[in-house]
Amino acid sequence: MKEGNKQILVMGGAGYIGSHTVRHLLDRGYRVVVADNLIYGHREAVDTRAAFEKADLLEPESLKALFEKYVIGAVVHFAAFAYVGESVVKPAKYYRNNVVGTLNLLDAMLEHGVKKIVFSSTCATYGEPRYTPIDEKHAQNPINPYGRSKLMVEQIFSDYERAYGLQYIALRYFNAAGAAEDGSIGEAHDPETHLIPLALQAIAGKRDCIRVFGTDYDTPDGSCIRDYIHVEDLAEAHRLALEKLEDYSGCINLGTGCGTSVLELIHAAEEVCGKSCPVELAERRPGDPARLYANNAAARAILGWQPRHTDIRSILSTARQWEQHRRF
Ligand code: UDP
Fold it and tell me: What distance in Å separates the CA atoms of residue 208 and residue 199, rounded to the nearest whole number?
């Protein structure tokens, strides 16, 4: 993949996971072009070693221009809307951007002879789990338009592989967490809905409290269990996936394989910060399964990947460093 003049196009490379992947690829000697519409992405998050182009999945001309200007060897596709709650009230926005937008991207790729793509998928494609840890063979019954939009793209890839020889790996992330070890980039959503930044902000006194959504789940402490995976481990998996596209297409889970409950996570954040967290016990959030954690055997076997951050405290301390020194 590194050979010749070819570059990696990172769609959505100004976002949270995208910006960390861009940096990881550059550190490993790849040449990278970042394209982003900057609706949710941050220009400041894009490493200065990468070329940057403003482009939008729903503007096919802007996509074609990328493939005409650069010699692209493969695409890493992060560009998507990803607010589950919003997807329920604005499904058209989600299907248009995430599904139609990806079709536009595939058109531009295939028109220019580019057949390799690594895609951000999600454990939300599984819906309510029938068993845990969740492996890739688990039935996929997403329970919201966001999850369905990602599943549709996975299915499109499979059809395009058969018909057009597309080479793809869809990475089904569990809960992305943490920030670059040097604190220079990290999570910056607006609005912020994720547990870790909200808990750290509550501990720092920037929010009144963290609301724990549900304490009556069938789990040891009654709160939901999730699999928090460090964003730099995710970034590395994207590079490994790029390097594997030649001989593998399919979908792969990315999680640590360990579950942490909401209450355990808040206690760990208190330990890392040395301060207590104001907590309010609240109702369940609709659509939240009790437990979600990954069987990551496929990622280990197929990609040769293994998570480096397996302790939730180490993930939290990178997130905390980012929260304290955020640039954007
Ligand atoms: N959560 C919570 N309070 C919050 C935000 C999230 O209790 O303010 C819980 C949520 O119900 C879920 C877990 O934290 O069980 C992780 O939620 P997050 O939104 O971070 O990620 P998701 O699992 O939705 O992708």
Answer: 10
Task: Decide if 154 is inside a domain.
Answer: yes
Answer whether 183's CB lies under 8 Å from 321's CB: yes
Residue 249 has a pLDDT of 98
The pLDDT, as a whole number, for residue 3 is 52
Helical packing angle, 312-324 and 262-273, nearest 10°? 60
Round to whole Å and give the CA distance between 22 and 101.
Answer: 21
pTM of the model: 0.97
Instruction: Please state the rounded mean pLDDT for residues 210-232.
Output: 98
Q: Are residues 159 and 111 in the same domain?
A: yes
**Residue-level pLDDT at 252:** 98
Distance, in Å, from the CA atom of 128 to the CA atom of 322, rounded to the nearest integer, reads: 32
Considering the candidates 40, 146, 168, 228, report the single residue annotated as catalytic. 146
pLDDT tens digits, one per residue of 14-46: 999 999 999 999 999 999 999 999 999 999 999
Ligand 1 atom index nearest CA of 194:
20
Q: Are residues 11 and 54 in the same domain?
A: yes
Q: How many Å apart are CA 312 and CA 318, to the nearest integer?
A: 10
Closest residue by CA, ligand 1 atom 1: 195
206 CB-contact burial (10 Å; exposed 0-12 / middle 13-18 / buried 19+): exposed
Quote the domain boundaries for residue 50.
Answer: 7-174+229-254
* Best CA proximity match to 187, nearest among 170, 175, 202, 173: 175
Domain containing 201 — which CATH number? 3.90.25.10
74 Rama class: left (phi>0) / alpha (psi -120 to 50) / beta: beta
Query: CA 280, CA 324: separation in Å to the nearest integer?
Result: 23
Is 30 a known active-site residue? no
CA atoms within 13 Å, Cβ hemisphere of 304:
7
pLDDT band for 238, please (50, 70, 90 cuts): very high
Substitution site in 216, 262, 284 for ligand 1 pocket (most atoms within 8 Å of beta carbon): 262
